[in-house]
Design brief:
The chain is an all-alpha fold and about 260 residues long. Helices cover about 70% and strands about 0% of the residues.
């Protein structure tokens, strides 16, 4: 995600497009710059499956959701996604904060040597709260994103099962890729402006003396809107949309294959 984050957090006019940004990074920092921060791990979304099982049990008790109660309603899917997003946000907030600090720093004069060095420096200078900079916006992005993400994907899966009269494990492996790609586009269409604000907050200074520009997320929205216009909220969306179908398609294909093995 180096390209979107560089474009999201750079001043207006720094890059005239995706290729200009990529070329600048490659020329000044080398090919490894595109992979900065990728060693930082992300947790799985176990809470989503737990929530789905809870709703399945409720459906069975009420005689809803089909024979096995697994055809969850839209509201149930959104709630499950929001719960998973909030749980994931506890970890993804500080993890992405560290990652974006690594990805946006200059290679010629880096502030941090790696993830652990960044964590140590930020915690020692700004306390544990410093690691959670931008956390409220992260929660908003994760809850909104996961809610939309899983609603779209699961509804597409349910639609095929209903139309063809088949079980979930009978769906062609190609279709989870297509449905995952569609869910990914829906996700970014909704959360990209929120993600931009999160990126701005997490690359901002910690105090006025260290170059802090934004007092809060709301202040960030106002200042970006006033100084850079509405286009700033979608800057860097191009490379994200190019990457999205491949990443999300592969994610859901892996999810479906793993589920078939576990429940077979």
């Amino acid at each position: 995600m180096t390209l979107p984050q560089r474009m999201q957090t750079s001043a207006k006019g720094t890059y005239n497009g995706m290729l200009h940004c990529a070329g600048g990074i490659l020329k000044n920092e080398g090919p490894l710059a595109f992979y900065k921060g990728t060693l930082t791990p992300l947790l799985g979304n176990w809470l989503l499956e737990y929530a789905k099982r809870v709703f399945t049990a409720q459906n069975l008790a009420r005689g809803e959701g089909g024979e096995e109660g697994k055809m969850l309603g839209g509201g149930q899917l959104v709630i499950a996604g929001v719960a998973a997003g909030l749980a994931n946000g506890i970890v993804s907030g500080p993890v992405e904060h560290i990652r974006i600090r690594l990805q946006t720093q200059s290679n010629t004069n880096p502030t941090y040597k790696g993830p652990f060095n960044a964590m140590k420096k930020i915690a020692s200078e700004h306390g544990i709260a410093g690691l959670f900079k931008g956390q409220c916006v992260t929660f908003l992005r994760e809850a909104t994103g996961y809610g939309v993400y899983f609603l779209v994907y699961e509804k597409l899966v349910q639609r095929e099962m209903t139309q063809k009269g088949i079980r979930r494990d009978q769906i062609s492996p190609m279709n989870p890729i297509l449905y995952g790609a569609a869910a990914g586009y829906a996700l970014w269409a909704v959360i990209y402006p929120i993600d931009m604000i999160k990126s701005r907050m997490q690359t901002d200074g910690f105090t006025p003396s260290t170059g802090q520009k934004y007092a809060s997320a709301r202040d960030c929205v106002r200042k970006v809107w006033r100084t850079e216009g509405i286009s700033a909220f979608t800057r860097g969306l191009g490379p994200t949309l190019i990457r999205s179908p491949f990443a999300n398609g592969a994610t859901f294909l892996g999810f479906e294959m793993a589920s078939r093995i576990l429940y077979s």
